[in-house]
Amino acid sequence: MGFMKQEEIWEHSVEAGLRKVHLPIRSQLVLGFLGGAYISLGFLLYIRVSAAVPPAWSDFGGVLGALFFPLGLIATLLAGGELLTGNMMAVAAACFSGRLGLRQLMLNWLIITLGNFAGALFVAYMFGHQAGLTEHGIYLAKLVKIVHAKTAEPFLQALISGIGCNWLVGLAVWLCYGAKDGAGKIIGIWFPTMAFVAIGFQHVVANMFIIPAAIFAGQATWLEYLNNFVPVYIGNALGGALFVAGLYRLADRKLWTGASPSSLKSSSSTKSVSHIQSGSSSSHLRE
Fold first, then answer.
1. Domains of the chain
2. Whole-number Å distance between alpha carbons of 129 and 107
3. Which residue ranges are recorded for the region named Disordered (predicted)?
4. What are the tens digits of pLDDT across the range 9-23?
């Protein structure tokens, strides 16, 4: 099970960020839809698993559900999808490297936000509401408990929770990029993702599913969703962009900028051109 050096992971993250930004807008929207749907399916699985645990063991049920939630991020990164929280790390890395502008970063985040929201809303409405998977018995009770806890957090608390969440999710993406085989990528994704769910940190895309699911069940309002969305979005952006991409950028600035080994710099430059020119390749989309 091979693993890259830190400087190689940084270069890989930068290249991934460049590829994401240079995908056609239609591809970004479609892959964003898939990313939002996959994360929502992971959260739906969390609810179905954790709610089945007796109330006296509810804490254990939360941990058990957290073990299954990473399915969503694994599917997004390995099967193919675009996820806002992952882009908050990778596209920011490309921006910090000086190879993307702030306008390109903001446009990509906006497009993926829209795609993720569409995918999450689809799963919430079709599977949660129409199929009733979140609106009956113990599953509805679990849904309401989760949503009320999320929407009850004040602005600052939700923002800080969002930072913690995407610090871990950004780390999961970083570890996935660093692994050289499928098993290593899954393990690298699994533990940080499981940790943020078990801790209870707030994830903006997961909330795009869970809170609308409660709205469709008549247990929450769109105003409550908006009041949650803003601080969690800001917190996730800070967690991925600053606490992962930003801190690794500062760790050894001379190395990250390519001022050290010339072979790393030339290799990165060559890969950048080829990846951008062939951005529609399926192997590129998986990253």
1. 6-277 (1.20.1080.10)
2. 32
3. 259-287
4. 999 999 999 999 999
